[in-house]
Amino acid sequence: MAKIRLGILGGGNDSLIGILHRVAANMFEQFEITGGVFNVDHDKSLNFGERLGLDRSRVYKNLEEMIRQEKELPEDKRIQAVSILTPNFLHYPMAKQLLENGFHVICEKPLTTTLQEARILNEIQAESNSIFAVTYTYTGYPMIRQMKSMIANGEIGSIQKIDVQYYQGWINPLIHDKDKRSATWRLDPEKSGISCCIGDIGTHAFNMAEYVSGMKVEKILADLNYLYEDNPMDIDGTVLLRFGENVKGVLRASQIATGEENNFTVQIYGDKGGLKWEQENPNYLYLLKEDQALQVLKPGHAFLSDFSLEGTKLPPGHPEGIFDSMGNIYYGVAMAIKDKVKYTGAYPTLGDGLRGMSFIEKTVSSHKQGNIWIKMQD
């Protein structure tokens, strides 16, 4: 079948997230980058489009121009799906316009800056035929998908404890300087929303806890850290999780964990065993059992789950990383667009993004109300 024509909003120049999405989109040869708006400066956007080998007429000044001119093209020529790689405050207005005009959407997280905006998108998408993915990137790792399959198959028994941690230190050099913290867009509520740390990386951990366990968080209790009175955004936090009466967990997220790079770990314990995974060593899934030696599972072996193997592109012993993980999500979206979805969880949905926004708002609310338990369900 023909490749899906993809447009991109943002992600130009030396953007890390931009190259991650472009490589992922090309990985399974399911997408063809056709055009977009790569920068608010049109000249810079044109220069970047030329680097990608795009037709200058498909590099637009803004989203409105892109939608208008693409819809004037024959259906077999126009952009079909659009990736939103802009700062948080632009996610909602862009996604809304795209859904209302019939485009499929791949959106960076957090989905929006408010829960109400996420609800509106959910209502619009429910009435459309558009596929909508939110890039909780780490769900695409083969060994995370293996973990999900093993838990679903009962290999560690009934879940008793869930522990997710996401530690970074990147904001530490900025937060202690008043001018620097005031100039950082992630610490600006107008651009980032009500949360920095929980909104940026805590939602990854929340989504992962629900994704691999197959369970939903019922209640949360949060304790956040802002460090300075003039800083309106959390940069560290601990959230207690209740999945049920006897299934509890903890989510720890920090951007002031000095020296940490991207330390995301997932630990799930059942009554028959436990599973551990570390994002900085993503090819290793550790299986723990009572009175048995520690087992280390690696991707690419025939004894692993079909879901894990479908996301594995190299033979055993050849490392796969975050580009591959994002590529698996893009592949899942492509299969959905082409009506060939095989596995639940092949890509994070708008519903996952909506739930992430609910988690952000309830976490901040729990903290501000004096660290109290709050129900996740509306």
CATH architectural category of the largest domain: 2-Layer Sandwich
**Name of the CATH class of the largest domain:** Alpha Beta
> How many discrete domains?
2
Shape, per Cα inertia axes: globular
In DSSP terms (H or I, runs of 4 or more residues), the helix count works out at 13
Mean pLDDT, as a whole number?
Answer: 95
Low-confidence stretches at least 5 residues in length (pLDDT < 50)?
none
- The rounded distance between the terminal residues' Cα atoms is 42 Å
Determine the strand fraction and express it as a percent band: 15-25%
Please count the beta strands (DSSP E, at least 2 residues each). 14
- Order the strands across the largest sheet as they lie in space: 13-12-11-10-6-9-8-7-14
CATH homologous superfamily heading of the largest domain: Dihydrodipicolinate Reductase, domain 2
Gyration radius from CA atoms, angstroms: 21 Å
Q: Describe the largest sheet.
A: 9 strands, mixed
Short description:
The chain folds into two domains: 4-137, Rossmann fold (3-Layer(aba) Sandwich), CATH 3.40.50.720; 141-316 and 350-368, 2-Layer Sandwich (Dihydrodipicolinate Reductase, domain 2).
